[in-house]
TrEMBL record:
Cross-referenced Pfam families: HAD_2
Organism field: Pseudomonas chlororaphis
Enzyme class: hydrolase
Taxonomic lineage: Bacteria, Pseudomonadati, Pseudomonadota, Gammaproteobacteria, Pseudomonadales
Superkingdom field: Bacteria
Record protein name field: phosphoglycolate phosphatase
Pathway: Organic acid metabolism; glycolate biosynthesis; glycolate from 2-phosphoglycolate: step 1/1
One cellular-component annotation, GO: cytosol
EC numbers, comma separated: 3.1.3.18
Cofactor(s) listed in the protein's UniProt record: Mg(2+)
């Protein structure tokens, strides 16, 4: 889609979510959830159902799938999930357009950072494996494996940026990312290639793009229009 609410002019920093936004880890996430389901007698799901139900708090998502959190502590489920997910996440592909978007930001003089609900150590290791670690000014993940909100981490990142919150664009793939952006004062933008489907994302008052490639194409078209106006 083309959404004229998106303008990179005036943006000084891009902050990306990681899982589902830059890295295509949906198949791995579904596999890890189903491994948990096998252990705790919960029927398997496919990617369509996963993306239709995935939400924060993640404990509520597991409850919606049929996990009995009264009998099995959520922390125990998360531990089993991460045994599979963290071991294999570096094998997941990046989404199309990742390097191109980062290059476009660099050419425009826009800073780039990550804030993620992944454990920071795993996040850094995966970025290194993908050749991305040096592309970000700040990389902020959780210091625990409790699968909680990343709002606190986003607020801490905003303090480190030292720029007006309204000049930062936060790009994510879930309604939680939209909520995080609003809590910090960042401008939200969502891509539908991640952990929630487009019908869910359209509930937010934010531009929704089909992926980073589509976003990059829109950015490039904005730049061309600006050049034409300047030359008029």
């Amino acid at each position: 889609m083309i959404d004229d609410r998106l303008h990179f002019s005036g943006i000084e920093h891009l902050v990306f979510d990681w899982n589902g936004t830059l890295i295509d880890d949906i198949a791995l996430a579904v596999s890890a959830v189903n491994r948990c389901g096998e252990r705790y007698a919960v029927p398997p799901i496919d990617a369509v159902r996963y993306r239709a139900l995935f939400d924060f708090p993640i404990a509520d998502f597991y409850a919606s799938l049929g996990f009995d959190l009264q009998r099995t502590p959520f922390a125990q489920i998360v531990e089993h999930y991460l045994e599979h997910f963290d071991t294999n996440v570096a094998q997941c592909p990046l989404h199309d357009g990742v390097f191109e978007v980062l290059e476009a930001a660099r050419n425009a003089g826009i800073g780039v950072s990550i804030v993620s609900a992944s454990h920071c150590d795993v996040l850094l290791q995966t970025l290194e494996a993908k050749g991305l670690r040096g592309h970000f000014e700040h990389v902020v993940g959780l210091s625990h494996n409790q699968a909680t909100s990343k709002t606190t981490e986003a607020l801490m990142l905003q303090e480190r940026l030292g720029t007006p919150a309204g000049r930062t664009l936060f790009i994510g793939d879930t309604l939680h990312d939209y909520d995080v952006a609003r809590a910090v004062g960042w401008k939200p933008l969502l891509v539908s290639t991640g952990h929630q489907d487009i019908d869910r994302l359209r509930q937010a008052d934010a531009p929704v793009f089909g992926g980073l490639g589509e976003l990059l194409g829109h950015y490039a078209s904005n730049e061309r229009r600006a050049v034409v106006r300047e030359g008029a």
